[in-house]
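Title: Comparing notes on inverse folding

I've been comparing how different people in this forum approach sequence design from structure. To keep things fair, I'm posting one structure and asking everyone to reply with a full sequence. Here's the target:
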């Protein structure tokens, strides 16, 4: 019963993330502001991250390699979601579009972002 509730909870979170992703895709296309692009990619990566546990629970991969790959894809997608939300917020508040490759710069490393998030 508990696993069934987790599945339903994750499915509803996925539906919510899908609505947010569609909203930001439509908003970015209608407004055409470069500052919204990191948020569009962020919500799409959150959608990917929420689809991973649904796939894991419904298909139950037996291979250790597939299981590890899915866990890493969840972790990396959620990390990308947080990083892109921060980049999009800073670009939106600063009034300038985010540069390509800005995530890889040392300014946005997780160690340097920690004081900003707390």
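Reply #1:
Here's my take.
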């Amino acid at each position: 019963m508990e696993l069934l509730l987790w599945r339903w909870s994750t499915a509803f979170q996925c539906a919510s993330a899908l609505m947010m992703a569609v909203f930001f895709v439509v908003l970015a296309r209608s407004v055409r502001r470069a500052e919204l692009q990191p948020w569009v990619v962020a919500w799409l990566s959150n959608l990917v991250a929420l689809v991973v546990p649904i796939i894991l629970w419904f298909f139950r991969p037996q291979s250790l390699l597939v299981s590890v790959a899915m866990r890493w894809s969840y972790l990396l997608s959620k990390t990308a979601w947080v990083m892109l939300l921060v980049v999009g917020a800073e670009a939106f508040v600063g009034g300038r579009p985010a540069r390509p490759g800005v995530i890889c710069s040392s300014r946005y490393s997780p160690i340097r972002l920690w004081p900003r998030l707390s």
